[in-house]
Amino acid sequence: MWLLKNRMAYKYDVFISYRRPTKRWVSKYFKRLIEHYLPEALDGRPVQIFFDENDIHTGDAWENRLKKALSESKCLVAVLTPSYFTSSWCTKEFAVMENRSQKLGFQTVQNPGGLIVPITINKGTSYPRKIQAIQALPCYDYYMSRGDLDKMRFWQDFEQIIADWISTDLERAISHAPAWNEDWQKDEWLNVPTDHIFRETEETDNFQPIL
Q1: 3-state class of 15 per DSSP?
Q2: Where are the domains of the chain?
Q3: Residue 179: left if φ>0, alpha if ψ -120 to 50, beta else—which one?
């Protein structure tokens, strides 16, 4: 009962983190499929997704709203492109959830899963090495900045790939999310350094965030 009560303190199952230039694709196609398939993957219960549709990150109120949403989300779905890690906001969102994963014993040999479930929509070659080590679903063959993806001949292929990913990787991350902790709303969990994401030395693989 105690565990169930704490799990119910979450507000969101998924926090979608993305770069603004990809907003149309993420909103019109990717998020739409998550909304359609995730409830069935979670035994039919309603799901809550945080998707920030605003275009300008300004002011403390904005920053605090994002932090609050992150602290109340079970997992982060990162829509990765090389430019994702040139965005200070995307990097902060990624770092907060990565910090929670590592502090709570995820991403280890004993518990290899994590609270970040990424997809890639650009092959790129400039992803930080730490990010390359995380298994991401490749979707670059289905990314279109213009046009109607759902009218293309390969739409059904893309839909099936996302449906399978939702029922395995995304469902697993949500179902294995730890009991919610109100401490996650404190600065030591939210004001996390991000420079380690870009380290290219051997120490990257063994990095533990210092709070």
Answers
A1: strand
A2: 2-200
A3: beta
**Spatial CA neighbour of 50 closest among 72, 25, 21:** 72
> How many angstroms separate the CA atoms of 104 and 58, rounded?
31
Q: Which residue matches tokens 């906001």?
A: 89
Tell me: pLDDT of 209 over 50: no
The residue to which tokens 């790939």 are assigned: 161
* Beta-carbon contacts of residue 146 (< 8 Å; ≥ 6 apart): none
pTM to 2 decimal places: 0.86
Could you write out the DSSP letters of every residue in 49-91? EE----S---HHHHHHHHHHHHHTEEEEEEEE-GGGGG-HHHH
CATH number for domain 2-200, candidates 3.40.50.10140, 3.40.190.10, 1.10.1740.10, 3.40.50.261: 3.40.50.10140
Q: How far apart are CA 156 and CA 55, in angstroms?
A: 30
- pLDDT per position as a tens digit, 50-100: 999 864 455 556 688 899 999 999 999 999 998 898 898 899 999 999 999
The predicted-structure confidence for 22-37, as pLDDT tens digits, reads as follows 999 999 999 999 999 9
**Residue 12 identity (one-letter amino acid):** Y
CB–CB of 100/189 below 8 Å?
yes
**Is pLDDT of 1 > 70?**
no
Asked if pLDDT for residue 131 goes beyond 50, the answer is yes
**Burial grade of 176 (CB within 10 A; 0-12, 13-18, 19 or more):** middle
